Amino acid sequence: MSIKEFDKRFGLRSSIEEEKTRFINRIENKIFDQLIKLDFDDYHKLFNSVCFQLGLNASEMIDQNSFMHTSIPNFDTLTKKDFIQTLRVLVAIHKAYEDEQAMQSTIDSLVKNAINSSALNIGIRWADGTFYPTGDELLDKELIDTAITLLDKFPDEKTDLKIALDNYQAKSLSGVVENCYLCIEGLGRKILNNKRTLDNNQTELLKLLQFSNYWDKIFLNYLKYAHEYRRHAGENRHKIKPEEVEAFLYLTCLIVRSTIKAFEQKA
C-alpha cells in the first residue's frame, strides 16, 4: 500500500502547499541528489547549461578554493525549495539532455512518479519535457498529451500548439486561439501537401476525415470562431472567458488527434 492510499484510507488530509513541499522533496531525493553523483565533468556541463537557460551566473555559485578544488552545488541551491523555481529547473535539466533520449525518458518517469505520488492535485502535469496546468485529468491525458505526441512528425505545428499551451498556462488569454488555429492550418498544409490557407483547405480536410455532417458543422464553426476572434482580437481579449479559451484548446487537440489518425489510416 502506498502512503497516498494509506492517508486516504485513514482520512489523513494535507494542504496543497504541504503537497507542493513534498513534491519538491521527492524531486530533490530522486533527481537532484542523483545528478550530483555524475562524473564531475558531466555534472559541471549540466550545471552550466541549466544556469545558462535560467539566466544565472554559474561561476558565482561554483566554489574554487586555493587548493584548486572545484565544488559545484546541488540544484536545490537554484530552487531554494520554491515550487515554481523547481519546475523551471526541471524543464532546464530536461532540455540540457536533448541529445540523450534515454536520460530524458528517465527524468520523464521520475517527474511523473513524483506528481502521481501527491495526495492532492498540485495543479501541474508533465508532458514532452515541460509542465502544464491541470484541467480535467482524463481530457488532459487523452487529448492534450496525445495531440502533442502525435505532432512529433509535425514539429512546426507542435511548436504552435505548445505556444498555445504555454500562453494558457501563463493565464494569458491572447495567444491561445491564434496559435491553435496556426497549428491546424499548418497541419492541413502538411497533410494535403500544399501551401493554402485553412479556409481553402477545409473542404479537402473534411473529405479526408469522412465524418458526419454534424462534425463538419463543428469544424466549420471552429474556423469561423477563430476568424472572428483574430479579426477582433483587441476588442475580444477582455470579454472572452477563460473557460471558453480552455474549450477551444481542447477542441483543437481533438481536431489534431482526429485529423492525424484519419490521415494515417489513409496512408
Summarize the structure in short.
The protein is mostly helical and 267 residues long. It has helices spanning 3-9, 16-35, 40-54, 58-61, 76-79, 83-96, 101-116, 137-150, 155-169, 176-192, 198-209, 213-231, 233-236, 242-266, and strands at 63-64, 70-71, 124-127, 130-133.
Outline the structure in words:
With 267 residues, this protein is mainly alpha-helical. The chain is 70% helix and 4% strand. It is built from 14 helices and 4 strands. It has helices at residues 3-9, 16-35, 40-54, 58-61, 76-79, 83-96, 101-116, 137-150, 155-169, 176-192, 198-209, 213-231, 233-236, 242-266, and strands at residues 63-64, 70-71, 124-127, 130-133. A two-stranded antiparallel ribbon has the order 1-2. Strands 3-4 form a two-stranded antiparallel ribbon. Strand 1 and strand 2 (70-71) form a beta hairpin. The N and C termini lie far apart (46 Å). The model has no long low-confidence stretch (mean pLDDT 86).
